[in-house]
Write a structure and sequence with these properties.
Layout: H1 2-40, H2 49-53, H3 56-71
Length: 75
């Protein structure tokens, strides 16, 4: 009798774990699809949303710093 109870409990635990894993995988795939759609959406200035988030002045400042490093100038 105790073996049957333990087997039923183990089987129920495995089924519950499988249901939980399947639900988590479905949620993960949905979240990934949402992020892909978010990145693919064009922004107001016509570029992709990810590119629109990067400020042009920030890029220019980084480029200026990299050029100074390449030239050996201390900032």
């Amino acid at each position: 009798m105790p073996f049957t109870t333990a087997a039923v409990l183990a089987a129920a635990t495995l089924v519950g774990l499988a249901i939980l894993a399947r639900t988590a995988l479905t949620a993960w795939n949905g979240w990934l699809d949402l992020q892909r759609a978010h990145l693919a959406r064009p922004s107001e200035n016509g570029t992709g949303h990810a590119l629109g988030m990067i400020d042009l002045s920030d890029i220019k400042e980084r480029l200026r710093k990299l050029e100074a490093i390449a030239a050996g100038v201390d900032l």
